[in-house]
Amino acid sequence: MGFTRGVKNRSAIVIGAGVGGLSAAIYLARAGLKVRVYERAPRVGGKLREVDVDGKTFDAGPSVLTMKWVFDELFAGRFGEYVKLGTLEPLCRHFFPDGSVLDLFTDEERAADAIEKFSGAASARGYREYRKHAKKIFDVVREPFMENAIPHIVNFIHPRALTMLTQIDAMRTLHKALEEFFPDPRLRQLFGRYATYNGSSPYQAPATLSVIVHVENAFGIFTCEGGIYRLAEALERLARELGVEIITGAEVEEIVTETTRSTFSEESRAIGIRLRSGAVEKADAVLANCDVADVYERLLNHTKTGRKLARKYSDEERSLSAYVWLAVAEPPPFDILHHNVFFSTDYKHEFKQLFGDRTAPDDPTVYLNAQDRAGTPPSGPERMFFLSNAPALEQGGRSNIDWAHGQEVCRDRIVSVMARHGWQVKALKQKQITPLDLATQFPASRGSIYGLSLNAMTAAFKRPQNKIAGVRGLYLAGGSVHPGAGLPMVAMSARIASQLALTDLAG
Ligand SMILES: Cc1cc2nc3c(=O)[nH]c(=O)nc-3n(C[C@H](O)[C@H](O)[C@H](O)COP(=O)(O)OP(=O)(O)OC[C@H]3O[C@@H](n4cnc5c(N)ncnc54)[C@H](O)[C@@H]3O)c2cc1C
């Protein structure tokens, strides 16, 4: 980004040192700004975090790293010097309740061969066609939508809107689109699962989400030597090298604003922050990386705009949360990879429970990240990260699940799914993470991992933008705002938000 003119000696404050906050700090500092990051937790990384389980370190958040080019750009071509990356082939092993197993590969020929053996020639043909289809959607949305500030909803009344929505396959659900390509319901289940990368349902979210299938299957999944938390450390290191000051254990309680009123309007300008300690810090620009709901509900609660946005936002459907079981256990009596998925018997019912009944699925699909298997696994017990989807909390932190008891239920259900495949999991050390924990760690998020759900045709376009109309000098970056959640998307969000800030400051 070439915005160094006019911004030297200007300053910015970033609220939150998640991947979005650190990435934004890097972009802003590289452009010449003096940047301070305030993070409420004792360590940086946000959802990208490590936890200790009786002396064993687990990655407790993301495990799938895709779209490496986003980080290549962020690290100015030196990503490899900061993190030792590896690739995976096969990408993931999929286990079905009928005992069948399918591996997917980045290499299209290998994947199509595996699918042909698994489900026949028609499925392999469907897969090849689907890859082409997903690529086309990606090529359409990449530059104008993913890499830039949100196209305003008003665009939908443009005469080309319908053509555009058709091009990006937004007029039908992901599940509907998969019916066109895959005669085998197991493959519809497998590719439909990618909707959950955004915390959404394949039965409601638009087929545009095929872009997620594309980025993982065509460009691959990357591993970080020593665990994915090394990415957070690398971002922190680069930020500090660029002169960014990072203050941890510092919770921001208010975005300080100056308000100008005229007869017809009221406009605020962000001029700094107030910390929990009471201290006020000022800057020329403020960039919030915390959940956007926290900005609306708490940090801007003293403004009319904040209160209005909070009211509007609170009714919107949140994306999924998760139940995570970290266990040190003997490996199964069958082969697993680094990434594994064990599918449920009735996928539609699973999503009806998650989004309709808003409860934990009684027969969940389980993602297993065997954390010691990015390389050669050790002999004996290994670190197993099990995840099943769970609904986010409701307004006011309510839930249909009593999580004190519900976490044991979720764990037992995971144990049952594994037992169906012949693995009696016995944890030697363990820790459970529930939506309630996530809600506590990430204020106002209700434990939802990916902001609003994308369970509607135009939901992606209605996501909060990277700037708030009516509050100048305030920018938003992170998984709850445009263009979306997931590590690379969040870094892209930081790029867009920083670009907006730099343009305003230079203007
Ligand atoms: C269990 C789990 C599995 C996941 N799996 C994947 C995956 O495999 N691949 C993938 O790409 N993504 C995955 N994700 C999603 C990914 O982790 C997130 O999209 C991404 O890390 C979000 O980054 P962020 O910068 O938006 O925000 P966050 O990580 O939420 O960071 C926000 C930061 O702001 C801080 N903060 C909040 N409020 C304040 C305040 N008032 N004052 C100061 N600081 C504040 C928080 O403490 C936090 O550090 C997963 C997430 C979870 C939880």
CATH architecture of the domain at 11-45 and 230-316 and 451-506: 3-Layer(bba) Sandwich
Total helices: the number is 17
- Give the strand order, joined by hyphens, for the main sheet: 7-6-15-16-17-14-18
Beta content: 15-25%
Bound molecule kinds, no repeats: flavin-adenine dinucleotide
Shape: globular
> Which class of the domain at 11-45 and 230-316 and 451-506 in CATH terms?
Alpha Beta
CATH fold assignment of the domain at 11-45 and 230-316 and 451-506: FAD/NAD(P)-binding domain
Mean of pLDDT: 95
The rounded distance between the terminal residues' Cα atoms is 15 Å
Write structural notes for this entry:
With 507 residues, this protein is an alpha/beta fold. It is 37% helix and 20% strand. Among the domains are: 11-45 and 230-316 and 451-506, FAD/NAD(P)-binding domain (3-Layer(bba) Sandwich), CATH 3.50.50; 108-216, no CATH class. The chain has helices at 19-30, 68-74, 79-82, 108-119, 121-146, 161-167, 174-181, 185-192, 210-219, 229-241, 292-299, 304-314, 347-357, 403-420, 435-441, 459-462, 487-506; strands spanning 11-15, 34-38, 50-53, 56-59, 85-87, 92-95, 101-104, 222-224, 245-247, 252-261, 266-275, 280-282, 285-288, 321-329, 339-342, 366-370, 382-390, 429-433, 471-472, 474-476. Helix 1 packs parallel to helix 10 (229-241), helix 7 (174-181) packs across helix 8 and helix 11 packs across helix 12. The longest helix has 26 residues, at 121-146. The structure holds flavin-adenine dinucleotide (FAD). Flavin-adenine dinucleotide binds at residues 15-21, 38-41, 46-48, 61-64, 251-252, 289-290, 294, 322, 324, 387, 442-443, 449, 478-479, 485-487, 490. The site of flavin-adenine dinucleotide (FAD) has 35 residues, from helix 1, strand 14 and helix 17.
